[in-house]
Amino acid sequence: MSVDTATVKKIASLARIAITEEDATRLAPELGNILGWIEQLGEVDTQGVEPMTAVIPNQLRLREDVVNDGGIRDLLMQNAPQAEHGFFTVPKVIE
Amino acid sequence: MTDLTTLGIAAIRDGVRDGQFKAREVAEAFNAKVAAADQLNAFLVKTPDHALAAADAADAARAAGETLKPLAGVPIGMKDLFATKGVATTAASKILEGFVPPYESTVSQNLWNAGAGMLGKLNLDQFAMGSSNETSAFGNVISPWRRPNDTAPLAPGGSSGGSSTAVSAGLAPGATGTDTGGSIRQPAAFTGISGIKPTYGRCSRWGTIAFASSLDQAGPMARDVRDCAIMLEAMAGFDAKDATSLKLDVPNWEAALSVDLKGKKVGVPKEYRVDGMPAEIEALWQQGIVWLRDAGAEIVEVSLPHTKYALPAYYIIAPAEASSNLARYDGVRYGLRDLPEGAGLQDMYAATRAAGFGDEVKRRILIGTYVLSAGFYDAYYTQAQKVRTLIARDFERAFEQCDVLLTPTAPSAAFALGEKQADPLAMYLNDVFTVPASLAGLPAMSVPGGLDKDGLPLGLQIIGKPLDEQGVLNASLAIEQRAGFTARPQAWW
Fold it and tell me: What's the pLDDT at A6?
């Protein structure tokens, strides 16, 4: 499986990771190699097999529909790189 | 007086309870060991006061005639993947540098509730992605083990490499680990200690920094099987805050330890005999068969036909889940922010993630993003989840013929740092024997079996049926007793 630099750049953009031209050139054969290796899964006959959803059978639980958390705004903000007036702040967004 | 740092968890617990020594003496002794072992780079944060406070509480409880908690007086190391309130938690990544959680993970809280104290936060592969501890943003952990007449630094295994180093070097009697594809068992094997990954759902994942949520399980790493049983009892338990937590009582694993395997059947999966496996590992595996037969077990050959597809399936599923889980690191709510001059929001995300994530983390996010992207989802991700069903079915069928499975833990002894770093695929192959049980959510343990020709530890793995940690612990204990493994690294640090 070969992966070209255009594909690497597209995936990186989807993943929101900035990469340089050199990164893309280095990553293309690396990712191609790994994806080529995992392609052997294609040879497994999975006709009629359900995809795994839970490894250990477990019941989804319901809980009381009540507020059981909250009121901790300042605690949540204390690790923010930038916060003002109780809000997380980000650069101006103009679409 | 004996060096208290030569004692394991059970011996410390019993000694404190019986008044042979004070918990404070134990904490002080381990704190001193930790302080003198900076060369190993096992600890990212040291918390001697936490260990001392827990020790003082244990001593006070004893003086007051109270019944001591199960881990009273026992100081442990905490893998830095568990959020610890007020103590920096980074997952060994720059993107979380400076992050101080305002909350405590359930597993660590359970340990504190049981009376344990914390010596510090342990280094690991960044976001638990790696098999050698070389992906940490804060430097490699160095194994305390060395080849004879050779000072080349060896890998402590990964991702719980700080944990394996701390325990094997005698810096802590036990440590927490997490295991997604082998991250407890492979480092335990590399350093001559024991480690168990329980059934998926036994230990709460709440407050544990997520890598691949359908696989991640916490577990203990310690000097022997009994110590692992004691620690796992404290770590496990139902937690409403984790939707996949199993609502089951925690068995009293320590009390039910037994080395009598009469009537038990041990399966030996023929597909685990891989090409190029060193003769010493094959020999140890055969030795393991002899030991378990000696303990009364009957040995049966079993087949797990989809074994060779476990690793490629894992390297779709785990990166796919990681790419989703790690989307939260965006430079907005916590952790690093990189805001280039004049950048907008999207540029800030991309710059932050480029600056904050290490190469291996980026590689896995990119693979995960690719296999989940439009047009590829079914061919990769859905197919991998179907193969996962087949792998779990293989185990179910094998367990119709036997109670536990015996395999090697890793395909080699510890390698030198740098040896496999150039080739990600070669590194991934380290997990070939541990990944299948992870995909099936099964309990599995590594226990030291012997040394290779260079004097480096080799581990054997016991895999059990869902929820049968007891069967896994007992078979491992039978091996431990017969192996008589007492080798420890000579202190050079």
Answer: 96
pLDDT tens digit sequence for B3-25 = 999 999 999 999 999 999 999 99
| Yes or no, beta carbons of A44 and B335 under 8 Å apart | no
ipTM of the complex: 0.96
Please tell me the distance from the alpha carbon of residue A31 to that of residue B323, in angstroms, as a whole number. 15
Say if CB B125 and CB B133 are below 8 A apart: yes
Burial letters B401-433, b for 16+ CB under 10 A, else e: ebbbbbbbbbbbbbbebebbbeebeebbbbbbb
A-chain residues within 8 Å CB-CB of B387? 41, 44, 46
pLDDT tens-digit readout, B369-392: 999 998 999 999 999 999 999 999
In chain A, residues with a C-beta closer than 8 Å to the C-beta of B386 are 44, 46, 49-52
Q: Which of B315, B354, B390 sits opposite A17 (nearest CB)?
A: B354
- Which residue on chain B is closest to A14 by alpha carbon? B369
Domains defined along chain A, listed by start = 5-41 (1.10.20)
What is the mean predicted confidence (pLDDT) over B175-201? 98
- Taking only the tens place, the pLDDT of each residue in B427-478 is 888 899 999 999 999 999 999 999 999 999 999 999 999 999 999 999 999 9
Q: Characterize B130-157 residue by residue with b for buried, 16 or more Cβ atoms within 10 angstroms of its Cβ, and e for exposed.
A: bbbbbbbbbebbbbbbbbeeeeebbbbb
How many residue pairs bridge chain A and chain B with CB atoms within 8 Å of each other? 163
Give one DSSP letter per residue of A63-81, joined into a string: --SS--S---HHHHHTT-S
Per-residue confidence band for A95, with pLDDT thresholds at 50, 70 and 90: low
Across the interface, whether the CB atoms of A41 and B387 are under 8 A apart is answered: yes
Cα–Cα distance, B336 to B329 (Å, whole number): 8
Q: Is 3.90.1300.10 the CATH number for B4-261?
A: yes
Q: Mean of the per-residue pLDDT values for chain B?
A: 96
In chain A, which residues have their Cβ closer than 8 Å to the Cβ of B375?
none
